[in-house]
Amino acid sequence: MFSPEGPTLRELAVQALSSVEHGYDLLAPKFDHTPFRTPDSVLEAVASALKGSGPYEDGLDLCCGTGAGVDVLAAVCRTGVTGVDFSAGMLDVARARTPAPGPRVSWVRADARALPFTAAFDLVVSFGALGHFLPRELPGLFAGVHGALRPGGRFAFPVLAPPRPSSPAHWMLLGFDAAMRVRNALWRPPFVMYYRAFRLGDVRRALEGAGFSVSLRALPEFGARRDGSPRARLVEAVRASGADAGLSAVAEARAGGVRPPGG
Question: How far does Cα 141 stand from its chain's mean position?
Fold first, then answer.
């Protein structure tokens, strides 16, 4: 699973016993040599899908890590691209990357649950990071993304079909989540990373509750399962534009637990 340039088992163990932030600070120099980095095939498929709805002006990579997803934004955005992450170590690696030709690139250290942006972007993407958020955190997270988008803006992220219960992958992920729950019950600070807590139906409802219009697009590059359903989809959540923006603001406030003006 790991290349010779990747972390040792001891380094992974130290990371797993750290907080999410400090764990990624430790892993950052070798992160791109682990299976946790989003594969280029997924990045390229998402870029191809977004080109059909673009171009966009300004884009944000939510939980950008070492910056691989920023290349997707650079392919579809004309003005500016921003990567945001709360791990200083991951951002240090991202800043050291050779910048892709195209729009200007900025890096911001911030917690995705408290984004410091208001109506600043036309496109927000995220790759493989949403398993770091507990289900109860999704409404607030998505309300923040909604607020960071301009009216008509789009939030897009890929999701893979869950493995069948009869497959080894299903039991591997189930075992991983069980091990993380035991670890978090016995050790502080917690390390939130659950593969099976991120359920598409719950995610869709949380997005709609935050004021998004949600659609799913198959990513044909990954083919279909035996029942004909796609192996991978792109979730596309669009913030309402024009007259509908006021209604979306009310939904956003409610998703964040804030009483809307006059509500």
Answer: 11
Residue 204 and residue 145: Cα distance in Å, rounded?
A: 14
| 227, burial (CB in 10 Å: exposed 0-12, middle 13-18, buried 19+) | exposed
Closest by alpha carbon to 67, among 19, 115, 103, 100?
100
- Under DSSP, the state recorded for 224 is B
Please provide the size of the chain in residues: 263
CA separation for the pair 115, 108 (Å, rounded): 10
- Token pair, residue 258, equals 């804030």
What percent of the residues of the chain are helix, what percent strand, and what percent coil, each to the nearest 5? Answer: 45, 20, 35
Give the list of residues 6+ apart from residue 136 with CB closer than 8 angstroms, or none: none
pLDDT (tens digit, 9 = 90+) per residue, 16-26? 767 777 788 88
| pLDDT tens, residue by residue, 113-148 | 999 999 999 999 999 888 888 888 899 999 999 999
What tokens were used for 31? 């992160």
The residue type found at 222 is F
CA atoms lying within 13 Å on the CB side of residue 55: 12
CB-based contacts of 98, cutoff 8 Å, min separation 6: none
Q: How many CB atoms lie within 10 A of CB 71?
A: 19
Structure tokens at 227: 């029942």
The answer to whether the CB of 195 falls within 8 A of the CB of 171 is no
Give 163's contacts (C-beta < 8 A, 6+ positions apart). 169, 170, 173
Evaluated on CA atoms 3, 85, 134, 216, the torsion sign reads: negative
CA-derived radius of gyration, the chain? 18
The token pair that represents 250 in the structure block: 């009310």
Confidence (pTM): 0.83
